[in-house]
Design goal:
This protein has 277 residues and is mostly helical. The chain has one domain: Up-down Bundle (Ferritin). Helix content is 66%, strand content 0%. The chain has eleven helices and no strands. The longest helix has 33 residues. It is globular and about 55 Å long. InterPro entries: UCP07580. It holds the Pfam family Metal_hydrol. This is Metal-dependent hydrolase.
Length: 277
């Protein structure tokens, strides 16, 4: 059993907000930086279909869940549906700014087709691992203003809103996994989740890098220069991937649970800002 569970007083609250409607988003919306813009755009391209997969994977194991987990799954589903809706709109603005996302979406379709061919428990394990990724990234987005500094205000608001809800529901897929695998030995459960996380990490890093490089190519930035600038942004400054390494490693600890680190203070700080008043 995990040493920490999802807080009993946690409420998962879908926040029905819309961003950027009727407005044009600059091509390099992240402070004029094509590299940072490419990385966020590449990530956003995965969300509409990826988050639909998350919902599908979690809901497959809702039967028999206790009332608290069942309620959390319903709220998780609502949040993810709204995230998909807003990233569909965001991705359209990226296309309107001149980017072709066709290849990035094709890769998502290809990955999802492969994983859907596996047993549903593997789908749930992949969702659990990817939800840990999104929670790590969300934590960093809210904890360090440097990540969205100088970004287009409406777009920055979208990513912060998404980050708030990713933190809030970060335990749902994991709790569903614990429910679905309650008949497994602790070692078997750990073995599956560890192997799936390693595979998910490889695909996540490779696919997002290739997606960002494709968008940079569309901006005329190619070759070693593109690779170096992408590495620098990801691992040096602002260094999102470097900063999440500790949280990534914690996933492999025998008594890991997403709420071993209670970072709800980030949600409270974000919602205390004037934009939420």
């Amino acid at each position: 059993m995990a040493s920490v569970a999802t807080p009993s007083d946690l409420t998962i609250t879908p926040r029905d907000q819309r961003f950027g409607r009727g407005s044009k988003t600059d091509r390099w919306w992240l402070g004029g930086d094509p590299v940072g813009t490419a990385l966020y755009n590449a990530l956003s391209a995965t969300f509409p279909k990826g988050e639909a997969f998350f919902v599908e994977s979690v809901r497959a194991y809702r039967e028999g869940a206790d009332p608290k987990l069942a309620a959390d799954i319903r709220a998780f589903t609502t949040q993810e549906v709204m995230h998909s809706r807003e990233h569909v709109a965001f991705n359209k603005r990226a296309v309107d700014a001149g980017y072709d996302l066709t290849e990035l979406v094709r890769v998502v379709d290809e990955r999802l087709a492969i994983i859907r061919a596996r047993h549903p428990i593997v789908n749930l394990a992949a969702t659990m691992a990817l939800e840990h990724f999104t929670a790590m990234l969300a934590h960093q987005l809210l904890a360090d203003p440097a990540h969205l500094r100088d970004a287009d205000p409406e777009t920055a608001a979208l990513w912060r809103w998404h980050a708030v809800e990713e933190i809030e529901h970060k335990g749902v897929a994991y709790d569903t996994w614990l429910h679905a695998t309650r008949g497994m030995t602790r070692f078997k459960r750990w073995s599956i989740k560890a192997r799936v996380m390693l595979l998910v990490t490889e695909h996540f890093l490779v696919d997002r890098a290739k997606g960002a490089l494709e968008l940079l190519r569309q901006d005329g930035i190619t070759g070693p220069k593109a690779w170096w600038r992408l590495f620098w942004f990801s691992f040096v400054r602002p260094g999102m991937m470097r900063k999440v390494m500790g949280a990534w490693l914690s996933f492999f600890l025998p008594r890991f649970h997403p709420w071993n680190h209670d970072d709800r203070a980030l949600i409270q700080a974000e919602e205390a800002k004037p934009a939420y008043a």
